[in-house]
Amino acid sequence: MAFSSNPSLLLMGRCSCQGQSEEKCSTSILYQLLNRGCQCGAAQERALLSPRAASNAASEVLLKTVEFVKKLPSFVALPPQDCAKLLQAGWAPLFLLGLAQEKLDFHPASPKKSILLGILTEKQQQQGDSAGQYRQKLGKAKEFLNQCWSLDISTKEYVYLKGIVLFSPVVPGLLCPHHIHYLQQEAKMTLQEHMSSLHPGAPSRLSQLLLTLDALRTISARGIAELFFQPIIGNSDMGVLLLELLYPS
């Protein structure tokens, strides 16, 4: 079974770069762009006062997201073409789920968590009259984060929600859409079984969790790339760069 009530089982698969040197994995252009600077807590709290460093903090979540995907046995067992298409199609909602799981907010009273506020400030300075567009995108992201936090989603639930998002059989050009559909359904069933044992008095919780995923459809990947990563990668194609993390040369 690809999904288990123990989320650690999802992390037992070895990605294609495991067993190789860390230096080889870190040669990815995107890895080098996203993994700059000191990562200690004290430095991070000061750095987040800078909008560019705020994007770096969001980048840490993206790197964790890709590593999570690469350690899913059911994912790495798919044809490489399907792996690439699934990651390119699902990276943005997976990233937002990671952002929610890390509880990274943009409350101005908390510099350590002011990621979105810093990015919005920079966009307002750079774009002037178009800042309203960025505010609208941030509003959708904030709304999604609030939905997740209001439900107090557990680590296991985040794992299964990510599986539902990742294994999307409607992504165009898949070689194994039927198997991927099975994996998605298995993630939903395992999530339901988990909640039945953990929240027997809340039968509507599954519907509430799945509704949070519906909110992700209104947030475009392009918008997420512009909001969080454009200060780092410029106008580079995020989908192409992500493949370098998935399959480092």
TrEMBL record:
One Pfam family recorded for the sequence: Hormone_recep
Alphabetized UniProt keyword annotations: Cytoplasm, DNA-binding, Metal-binding, Nucleus, Receptor, Repressor, Transcription, Transcription regulation, Zinc, Zinc-finger
Coiled-coil features, chain-numbered ranges: none
Record localization: Cytoplasm; Nucleus
GO molecular function: DNA binding; transcription corepressor activity; zinc ion binding
Keyword Nucleus appears in the UniProt entry: yes
Main localization of the protein described in the UniProt heading: cytoplasm
Organism listed in the record: Acipenser oxyrinchus oxyrinchus
Protein name listed in UniProt: Nuclear receptor subfamily 0 group B member 2-like
Gene Ontology biological-process entries: negative regulation of transcription by RNA polymerase II
Gene encoding the protein: NR0B2
Domain of life: Eukaryota
SMART domains reported for this sequence: HOLI
The UniProt record lists the keyword Magnesium: no
Protein family according to the UniProt entry: Belongs to the nuclear hormone receptor family. NR0 subfamily.
Gene Ontology CC terms, in alphabetical order: cytoplasm; nucleus
NR LBD domain segment(s): 22-249
